[in-house]
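[scheduler] slot 2 assigned
[scheduler] job type: sequence-to-structure, two independent chains
[scheduler] chain ordering preserved from manifest
[runner] begin chain α
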Amino acid sequence: MVAELQFRLIFMAVFVTSVSISAYYRRKARESGEAISRRAEGTVVLTLRACGASVVLTSFLLYALIPRWMGWSALPLPQWVRWLGAGMGIACLPLLWWVFRSIGENISETVLTKKEHRLVTYGPYRWVRHPLYGVALLELLSLSLLASNWFIMLLCLIGTLVFRLAVIPVEERKLIEAFGEDYEDYRKRTGALVPRVHIFYRTKPDESRA
């Protein structure tokens, strides 16, 4: 019983901290640069985003506050696996901060590209084109292990498919339109969600970094 309470507290601590990091940097970006409204993507996309976010948030809150209501999707995972999930979730927090710190004002609420968008190729972006999505999915996986819950794990799988098959292709088309060959070259040497095998590929230093 004590261990279960610890798991739930860590679960909420990781989730709340990650949301706080995201909210802080997104607010800074809105205040200091161009902001693109989510409505610009259209009603269908906006509705799908809202539905997806509602499902994730509801499942998280139910597990943390009323765990018996998520009992139908519980997994009989050993405690060491759940502690592994806890460690992974905590490790995601500095990674998330690194991603937001690197992208800065370029962060967007949508897959659309800002007029003043800069191609960021330093920090985690040196190896991965979409590290924010990658870290988010890793955190979702870690929380599913921590909660010992197959439904949250299913959400991670669905999220991976949505990002890889729908979100990333649209976003990268916009980036190719904005940066042309520079982005094409960048895409050849980096992974979409995780680093490629040749992570030590020598790249030309990003001259845009101050």
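[runner] end chain α
[runner] begin chain β
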Amino acid sequence: MEAREYQTILASAADGVATLTLNVPERKNPLGPLMVNELLWALDDAQADESIRVVVLTGAGKAFSAGGDLKQMSAGDGTALEPKGDYVDLLLRFGSLGKPTIARVPGYAMGGGLGLVASCDFAVACESAILGTPEIRRGLFPMMIMAVLQRVVPRRQLMNMMLLGERMSAEEALRVGLLSHVVPDEALDEKVGALARSLASQSPTALRMGLAAFHAQADLPLPDALPHLRDQLFALLGTQDAQEGLRAFLEKREPRWTGR
């Protein structure tokens, strides 16, 4: 990945996994225009780097993100990076990344931070994590993140979250579908690492085409979704990775993916 002069995030890569860390721990990693823009740059770099198979998104310290940074109102302050977009663009970027994403939740994930968690393909939290949409208690409402939350949380539970604004434990968040895994605090890194390694071992071609097909069909009526998915299956069968996977199965060996 490109080395850039980030001020509010950290970006690193190892063994096919890019780790993006929201890095303002003294304020529980609030999401402001500067951080959003840096995340857009980092996600685009991860997408362009063929060696990156998986993206892990997390927060420094004991929080993922406490939500929107109400103190920071203008993008670009103190950064040399050109503006790439706003929070809406950031939420949309996850669906077009073409690489699986894991939210590592080490503590608080509130408001806009919870929107990022819901946008990731997997969300792994420690048992002490606290999640929620407290906006209603400030005379606000979780407008933009509503669109991604309603894709992972059933309607009744979502209304309870948004209209009451109460905090939710990790176990409660797991039950309503916000999280995919909850582990003891000391096992968080082990679980995220194991999940990332498993994903990184899969065919990058199948992951890319499968994720694209999943997001493309999500809003289609069934009579349109099924023909689209049939066409995508035929397209995938014509790739080198699919042919290698089938050969490896017949030859009883591990496949060697090329990403093509």
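[runner] end chain β
[qc] chain β: The CA atoms of residues 133 and 162 lie 6 Å apart.
[scheduler] slot 2 released
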